[in-house]
Amino acid sequence: MAASLYESVYMSGENLESGPKAYLKHLKSSKDLETTYEAVRAGFVALALEKNRRATPFVAQARALKATASAAKTPGDLLKIEDIQPALLTAAGVSEKAANHLQEADKREAISGLIKNFLEPAGASFVEELVFRFLLTRGDTLGGSMRNIGGFMAQKKLTRSTIAHLTLAGKTCKWLHSETNAWADLPKDDTDIELYLRGLCWTSRGKPRTLVYNFTVPFFRNNIDLSLFNCNAEDLTKDTRKNPTSYIALGELKGGIDPAGADEHWKTARTASFVVSRSAADLR
Fold it and tell me: Which residues, at least 6 apart from 230, have a Cβ–Cβ distance to it below 8 Å?
């Protein structure tokens, strides 16, 4: 993670202990930046497990499709089963995004083409052919979601580590749900909460701290991976977000275990940190 202290002393007036060389607490030499083979192997295994987790709903959908479509005696009979029409469109190679731009007549034409060109030639195995083609399109959907999986897993890891340290310190905190956008007390059983968590709020040495992921900073007009505020969650209003003195730190979070992409991660992280530092200087 490449992070900028965002001109913290000037912007917030705080005398941070970290100072300009806080990274020295974690990095003693360039060797500390090298990823070991064991870490690379563990990272690829974690990616594979996450991919399988995300694929589970698609596999369940395919099983349900097979069970329902098995009621059809011929490929043409599939058109009579109303509940599987969206799945037939998917099997025809039309993604959900593309389907939003098609009229009903276009959708029927795509499904008819699937039946005529692929399901009818499959003979008695037309249901199996249908399921295979359904999964083929769903696989593209899964592949698209996996493009940002490195960043998502990095956020999960950081979230879990932060929660662990707060829990060990006996601190209570609130969390922001990514879907409902509502703050709530962190439950005692926080298993898998990092899958839906977009923010955390706690108290450090009597001072409030609120961390928010993927936040568009008003005066940068850029999406920032990590934004740390010196206020409580309920005080994080529009006016607070527009006030530079409300920010303690901004950070860029990079994930991904493939050594081939490491250089690109460093470049984009450095560029993001430069934008933050330059914009902070312009606000003086």
Answer: 12, 14, 207, 208, 209, 246, 247, 248
